[in-house]
Amino acid sequence: MTQSLVVIKELTKAFGSLTAVDRVSFEIQSGQVVGFIGENGAGKTTTMRMMVTLELPDSGSIHIKGHNALEYPDMVRHMVGWMPDSYGVYQFMTVREYMDFFARAYGFRGAERHRRIDEVMEFTELNTIHDRPVDKLSKGMGQRLCLGRTLLPDPEILVLDEPAAGLDPKARIEFKNLVRLLADQGKTLFISSHILSELEQMCDSLLFISKGKIVHHGSSESLKSREGEPVMVRIELAGTNYAQLAEWVSCQPGISIFEQDASGMRIRMDDGSRAHLSMILQRLQSAGFEVCEFHREKVRLEDAFVDIINRNAGGGM
Amino acid sequence: MSADWLNPIVVKELRQGLKSRLFTGMFLTLQGVMFMCMMIYVLSDKPGGDMEFINGMFWFLLGVLVVLVIPIRAFQSIHEEQKNNTLEMLYLTRMSSWKIAFGKWLALVIQQWLLVTAVLPYLVLRYFLGAINVADDLLTLSLMVVTGMLLISAGIGFSGWKSKLVRGLLIGGVAMSFYVIPIALFGLSRSGLNFSSSPVVWIATLIGLVLLMLFFIEYGASLIAPPAENHAKRKRILALLIIGLYMIVLVIEKSAPLVFLGLLFIIPICIDSLCEPFHLVPSLYRSSRRHFWVVRLIRRLFYPGWPSGFLFVTIVLMIWSTSVILFGPGEHRIVLFLTSLLGTLFLPLAIVAVVRPATAHYMSGYLVILFITFIVSMVLMVFEAVSRSGFNFLSGFLPMSTLIMSISRKTASDQILSTAVITAICVLIIVIKMAKPWRDIIALEKSDS
After folding, report:
1. Total CB pairs under 8 A between chain A and B
2. Which pLDDT does position A316 carry in this prediction?
């Protein structure tokens, strides 16, 4: 069995009486792209800051490539690239000077430094704005600059906190493309975001955090198609006898009307198994309804997230 | 593009600093005022009278810039980075916290030197205009530069504090030292310490100042370093170097006041040792098991955190007092002085350890209590001087009061008992409070991995 690149065990951090991160445990394999999802104040940033050694946990452990982050922060810092949600810039400095400063700080010397800066600036398309003052950049360009700085030392693991927050749709697409390219290069990415649909497309697995506790860890597919879980089914009839259908639904155990419009009805079924779906369809037909559309709706990640949060309101995973 | 070997922070700070309005403004103002002064002198009918004005203007303006404006920038240096969210970016680079703090110090010192170099032509011009002694002027200029460098290092050291209260108290402490140190030096010169006739004393003072500068920079570095780094070791070694230096000078010069001068340099290191945050990071203690027991005991004095800091301060002050007794000309007040000094340093720690034991940093509480005891001691001194009522025994319960009185030679012998009692109580409280941290440390020393 291969050793996980990131192993987090029972991580806890409190700020006064508020427990921001509560016995969080998870693992990330090498080359994985993991999305980190949670509402505001759920503990995402605190967890990420502890992972990159910027925050000290009250208890628990973080191992990055086998190194304890608490005991050997320097070794861990060499392997991890951190892109915070908000970043500071320096006055009186151009994009090129900014990158040059950080390249020096990362220990690049002479021609190697120039080569690395050129590579990163080309990758992030910063070369087109190389002489712009860093404190006068737009949000999108700033995020690219921040990513460029993070990529300079070519870290194995990239921890990105809300990288797409505040970006316009065009900048968001460009940024998403950059993340895809990094994933293709085999980087391990740990990304937090509020835009769940984007994470769904980019990530191999998703981690849901709520009130400091991990409430789900798995792929988006496993999250959306959990056998036996409630599902939404859309029914459309050939005729318009929806009042009769509503009456029929109300008599059936385990199903209820969720929504009704002019062209059809959405019903919620407590048991979403294939067998149960098939049985309900047969009963509908036996009851004389002319069903022309009967399909299980795809669960949106947002809905799954809210559902999980509601179901886990009482306790963590 | 600048040279590769240069500290990146120096490159960045100079890039930013030299382009800033403040530096450009300072430079142009200095040049403008100096030029105007020279023109006034050349065009004036009464050159002798104007020379005083020119001299006054020259030193005032230079002093304000070198000893005030640039050090004030240092006091904001690391804090500005924290405020702008840029410091954390630096943590994750290959740069050590020392390199960050030292780079910031060096960049400001270079800017200070640039200003000084820019006024040198006017200094030479003043010589040709007459009525000045270049050697004296250069000496004054050098003292100004060294003072500025020391203040910049203190500024860098203290600027790592996020708390405005702590930074305010530390800056207040630096301001107060401008009042206390001249009094102490005056007292020492009255006790026989002769600066002007002894190059050894000068050299020792200069080395002491350099070591103190290094301490302040290291202090700044320790504030921004991860808890897994042991900065206490370097800071405490600096204290030992200062003690060692002054013991050597004491043997050469046979002048007891010298060690008091050395003591002035190590007091900030002692206060830092007593207030250091204690984090139980296993990697700091585990390797101790491999060492011989004597080495292990010595290593314990250099662990980060106040529990080892307390032991270190006690031992350093014992070494210091022993050196005074052995090599000095027999100071009979040394016992009272040492007791009151220990009490002064330990009283705030004992109170903080009892009142706010869970606080990571003891410094804020410690400084507040130290400040209050200083104010109360001063009030007591004034009250005693006015009323002439002998309540020495009561004021002895405030060790700082006894300390100030022992320096000013106003101590009555009945003070020693009350001071000794309160110091002993403080030591007892601290020993009780540090029992658990030491148990944890020893357990970690014994653990395998």
Report:
1. 84
2. 41
Task: For B90, name the nearest residue in chain A, comparing CA atoms only.
Answer: A105
Return the SS3 of B28.
helix
Best residue in A53, A104, A116 for a mutation probing chain B (most B CBs within 10 Å): A104
DSSP characters over B254-304:
--THHHHHHHHHHHHHHHHHHH------HHHHGGGGGS-HHHHHHHHTTSS
State the ipTM, two decimals: 0.79
A84 conformational bin, left if phi > 0, alpha if psi -120 to 50, beta if neither: beta
What is the per-residue DSSP string for chain A? -PPPSEEEEEEEEEETTEEEEEEEEEEE-TT-EEEEE--TTSSHHHHHHHHTTSS--SEEEEEETTEETTT-HHHHHHHEEEE-SS----SS-BHHHHHHHHHHHTT--HHHHHHHHHHHHHHTT-GGGTTSBGGG--HHHHHHHHHHHHHTT--SEEEEESTTTT--HHHHHHHHHHHHHHHHTT-EEEEE-S-HHHHHHH-SEEEEEETTEEEEEE-HHHHH--TTS-EEEEEEESSS-HHHHHHHHHHSTTEEEEEE-SS-EEEEES---HHHHHHHHHHHHHTT--EEEEEEPPPPHHHHHHHHHHHTTT---
CB-based contacts of A297, cutoff 8 Å, min separation 6: A231, A232, A233, A234, A266
- Across the interface, of B16, B90, B94, the residue whose CB is closest to A91 is B16
* pLDDT over threshold 70, residue A171: yes
The secondary structure element, H or E, covering residue B104 is helix B97-129
B279 contacts A56? CB cut-off 8 A? yes
Could you tell me if B113 and B145 are in contact, meaning their C-beta atoms sit under 8 angstroms apart?
A: yes
Phi, psi of A168 (to 5 degrees): -75, 165
CA distance B23 to A92: 13
Q: Identify from A62, A71, A95 which residue to disrupt to test chain B contact, counting B C-beta atoms within 10 A and taking the largest count.
A: A71
pLDDT at site A1: 47
Collect all residues of chain B within an 8 Å Cβ-Cβ radius of residue A57. Answer: none
Q: Judge whether A106 is closer than 8 Å to chain B, CB to CB.
A: yes
Residue B122 tokens read as 């006017």
**What average pLDDT does the segment A223-232 reach?**
67
> How many angstroms separate the CA of residue A108 from the nearest CA in chain B?
9
**Chain B closest-CA separation from residue A269 CA (Å):** 49
Q: What pLDDT, on a 0 to 100 scale, did the predictor assign at position A224?
A: 65
Q: Which residue has the higher pLDDT, A303 or B104?
A: B104
